């Protein structure tokens, strides 16, 4: 009998500002300057005054920065 593999699909993870700052090393003001300049992914509303970023977007930004560095 043939076994069917089921891939577990994880829901997208959402990061809050404090975690984005921790992961990127950017200050709060530098984060928002880069967002305004279009150099960092925009946050989205989580309701009320809450905002978040997709973990995959933040990870891609970090990867792009790291791949652009000189060895």
Give the number of domains: 1
Span of the ends, CA to CA: 51 Å
Q: Residue ranges: pLDDT <50 for 5 or more in a row?
A: none
**DSSP helix count?**
3
List its salient traits:
3 helices, 71 residues, 15% strand, three-stranded antiparallel sheet, alpha+beta
Structure at a glance:
The chain has 71 residues and is an alpha+beta fold.
Write up this protein.
With 71 residues, the chain is an alpha+beta fold. It has one domain (14-67). Helix content is 42%, strand content 15%. It contains three helices and three strands, in the order βααββα. Strands 1-3-2 form a three-stranded antiparallel β-sheet. Strand 2 (44-47) and strand 3 (50-54) form a beta hairpin. The radius of gyration is 16 Å and the shape is flat. The mean pLDDT is 91.
SSE blueprint:
Elements: E1 14-15, H1 17-24, H2 28-36, E2 44-47, E3 50-54, H3 55-67
Antiparallel strand pairs: 1-3, 2-3
